[in-house]
Write a structure and sequence with these properties.
With about 150 residues, the chain is mostly beta strands. Helix content is about 10%, strand content about 45%. It has a nine-stranded antiparallel β-sheet with strand order 5-1-9-8-7-2-3-4-6.
């Protein structure tokens, strides 16, 4: 089960580029249900996600590079590219902020995601002051949706 909240970021911390990051490229074979192929650095993954906004089932299967290249060529819509910075959450040993800084079609878009162990933790979360609007429940900034906007 993936439980996460998502925020639109317009004023990131000045030092965000000093944190480790992953380069991500991903496309969608389907958006209902969500079936995604992703290259994260040198790792390749096929993901299925059930319906939902705050909480949903997620299954990840490893791919090799050839399978990824074959499947990414069959995706619908745009291929999304972004850098995902991993920022430790102050006052929480187990939470990490994933700050996605988009490139290409969505250059300049920044979204922060935080994954939680349970719904209670997600509901009681107080975001850092630099987080913007909570867009978790709008679905407006789901990557699968962004990939389908011309």
């Amino acid at each position: 089960m993936e439980i996460e909240r998502k925020y639109l970021v317009t004023n990131p911390p000045e030092n965000y580029k000093s944190y480790p990051y992953h380069f991500i490229e991903q496309g969608y074979l389907s958006t209902d249900p969500v079936v995604r192929v992703r290259k994260e650095d040198e790792t390749y993954i096929l993901t299925y996600k059930s319906k939902g906004l705050l909480a949903r089932e997620e299954y990840n299967l490893p791919l090799n590079e050839d399978s990824y290249k074959h499947l990414i060529s069959k995706t619908d819509g745009s291929i999304l590219t972004k850098k995902r910075y991993l920022i430790p959450m102050e006052h929480s040993a187990h939470l990490t902020i994933e700050l996605d800084v988009f490139e290409g079609q969505y250059e300049g878009l920044m979204l922060a995601e935080v994954e939680f162990e349970n719904l209670e933790e997600a509901h009681s979360f107080t975001p850092p002051s630099w987080f913007g609007k909570d867009v978790t429940l709008t679905g407006e900034y789901q990557n699968s949706r962004l990939s389908q906007i011309p």
